[in-house]
Amino acid sequence: MHRARVNVSEGVLDANETIARDNRRDFDRHGVTVINQMSAPGAGKTSLLERALEDVGEVRIGVLEGDVRGTLDADRLASLHLPVTQINTDPGFGGECHLDANMVRSALPEVPLNDIDLLVIENVGNLVCPAEFRVGEDARVMVCSVAEGEDKPLKYPLMFRTCDLVLVNKIDLLPHLDYDLDAFLRNLDAVHPDVDRMLVSAKTGEGTPAWRDWLRRAAG
Amino acid sequence: MHELALSRAIVEAALRHAEGRDVTVVRVRVGALRQVVPESLRFNFEIVSRETACDGARLELEMIAARLRCARCGREWDPTPRPATEIGQLVAAPSFRCPACGAGDAGVVAGQELEVESIDVEEEQCTARG
């Protein structure tokens, strides 16, 4: 036996990127804009989506729900009469902590791409892994709530650097928290200078019209 | 925590190129901007490679420093924060904004790498391959 060196020169995530490009081609062929929505658990992704869906005009929206387990979020959104497809990443005990391009690909046959203009993919709540895996999206939206503390951009720079819009949610809680909004925005700016950001409250609806307009423009 | 998913992808790439031969070394280039924890990657690699041709293989990591280039003035710099020094400062801030002109649109020159560079495999001495 002897040793031989084999040149590989392959991106670790190349396989995922290839499938993501296939997804993207399918979305483009159907004229569907895709948003990958990401956040920590409990930041308010589903609530902000509910707010947006109240009034999106002519835009036909579909949702792809990624959860480790269960259909709670899908059930909530289904009551708004729009097509919701659920992906559970849990094959038994302990599921993946993110969606990858292949999981999205296997769910595509159930997504009515002909009947929608905009597909929102609600990723699994997690600030680390989803950032690494493209799924074929046009844009990435991150939700970060003020209850999470102002240091999060510094702790999870990969996630904050990779998104196109940051929704700072739960601003109705600001009077009750020792949260320094200016410090958060400074930290955000250090990690991702000039990234689009909106201050919103899914609870009171403050700031959510701008989020709706952003979605509408994305779909246009 | 994404080291588990990354280790799986590394092992899959190595196995594909090993074509059935036993793998003894896997060399991976990791950019500083990928937020990969080397110890965690090694730990997960060891578990994921069990009972595959990569079982027992050594994972060699080449860590690559981050380097940004300002799109406006051309200045290059490393955005990595220095370790926090002040008491109460838990996490130091990196800077992705140009230290020279303040522009926010820097390009990444280095630090985004995440690549399986090469592997070493065991080969029968007299087998003619080609």
Q: How would you describe the overall organization of this protein?
A:
The complex is a heterodimer of chains A (about 220) and B (about 130). Chain A has about 220 residues and is α/β, with parallel strands linked by helices. In chain A, about 35% of the residues lie in helices and about 25% in strands. Chain A is built from eight helices and eight strands. Chain A has helices at about 15-30, 45-55, 70-80, 100-105, 150-155, 155-160, 180-190, 210-220, and strands at about 1-10, 35-40, 60-65, 85-90, 120, 140-145, 165-170, 195-200. In chain A, strands 4-3-5-2-6-7-8 form a seven-stranded parallel beta sheet, with helices on both faces. In chain A, helix 1 (about 15-30) packs parallel to helix 4 (about 100-105) and helix 2 crosses helix 8 (about 210-220). Chain A is globular and about 70 Å long. Chain B has about 130 residues and is α+β, with helices and mostly antiparallel strands. Helices cover about 20% and strands about 30% of the residues of chain B. In chain B, strands 2-1-6 form a three-stranded mixed beta sheet, with helices on one face. In chain B, a hairpin with a 5-residue loop joins strand 3 and strand 4. In chain B, helix 1 (about 5-20) packs across helix 2 (about 40-50). The relative contact order of chain B is 0.24. The interface between A and B is large, with 41 and 41 residues.
